[in-house]
Amino acid sequence: MLCKLNSVDSLKSSMRRRMQRKYNAVFVTMVPSPYQRDLFGALAAREDVNLSVCYLESGAPDSPWPKKELRPFERILPGFCVPFGNVRAHVNWSFSDFSDAEFVILSSFTSFSGQWLMRHRLRGRRWLFWGERMRPQSGVRQLIQTTLGAPIARAAGIVAIGSAAEQDYRSRFPQLRHFCIPYHCELAPFFVIRRDANESGVITFLYCGQMIERKGIDLLLLAFDRLIANGMDARLLLVGREAELPRLLNLMSPSARARVQYEGFQAPECLAAYFGRSDVFVLPSRHDGWGVVVNQALATGLPIITSDAVGAGFDYVQNGINGVKVKAGDVDALYDAMQTLTQNPEIARNWGMKSRELARTLTPEAGAEKWVQVFEALTIG
């Protein structure tokens, strides 16, 4: 009984602190990603958070989301971007002085702006690094990554996007405080999709993302080609930026290509319709820091095949429960997983029901609550 009373007293004390506090938080992040903006909207709606968001750039070429009007707490910082391979190094100015901010949350360590903030402007201030798992590197690239990431050691803590990222950052910066908050985004349009029994007997696999080798699209095309060659009745629906797709389609036989439907890049508000046309979601990335499309597949009620290099798969795909995790880069394992679900539609349906159950805790409001818990934990000490 004493333990229960102490627990109740602790909860009441926490609630009183929240009613008395208003956390001033400034996020400095890359671009107005629709999925981050879902979270920011939920944070801004809270009475215990005073939010400001600064974007280093208005948009990114690899994700041409439709422009949306900025809200009062958001602004695009003046500046420009210098591309270095797959990295966009931003140079910005007109940062605020952060004098009123209790917490500055920075999500970029590769940009010039991020380096300047970590090494100079944020000295003496309480700031957090917020990020996905770093991509494994070797040789010179690993040296560059280590050098650029070194100033993260000065942060008050790291908020990792997913458990795999948290493990990675703990190994790199064991002396810091660590928190884990997966991406939380608006999933209501996906929850309303009805999951009726597939009467046609034709399984439609969905891939949503950039058509690039890092995402494993070449592996997916090869595995699908083998499915068709072995007489399986299946379709492949592709949604996302074209990128390397024309070249990679040449890997397939004409009969398999005829069963591939490419729908191009789609705005976030249009995606639910494509998820609703599908039976199985596949994301076989060689590296994916998170993968918000997994959240969307969960809410749609789809079974999920993902590689073990996808952050969201690490947390939310349970082998034999709601999907299968296969070894990244292993086309044979990917084929086996796809074949299993093609031949066993009832398993696919049961796994999809489990996916939807897992998704119910991934709302933006739930994510905002986790952020407030981080602020509270750091304030208490």
Short description, anyone?
The protein has 381 residues and is of the alpha/beta class. The chain contains 15 helices and 15 strands.
The sequence of SSEs as H and E is HEHEEEEEHEHEHEHEHEHHEHEHEHEHHH
From the 3D coordinates, which CATH architecture of the largest domain would you assign?
3-Layer(aba) Sandwich
Number of helices: 15
CATH superfamily of the largest domain: Glycogen Phosphorylase B
End-to-end separation: 28 Å
Describe the sheet with the most strands.
7 strands, parallel
Radius of gyration: 22 Å
Structural class: alpha/beta
Write down the CATH class of the largest domain.
Alpha Beta
Kindly report the average pLDDT value: 92
- Helical amount: 40-55%
Give a description of the structure:
The structure is a single chain. The protein has a seven-stranded parallel β-sheet with strand order 3-2-1-6-7-8-9. Strands 12-11-10-13-14-15 form a six-stranded parallel β-sheet, with helices on both faces. It has a two-stranded antiparallel sheet with strand order 4-5. The protein has 381 residues and is α/β, with parallel strands linked by helices. It has 15 helices and 15 strands. It starts with a helix and ends with a helix. It folds into two domains: 18-186 and 363-380, Rossmann fold, CATH 3.40.50.2000; 188-359, 3-Layer(aba) Sandwich (Rossmann fold), CATH 3.40.50.
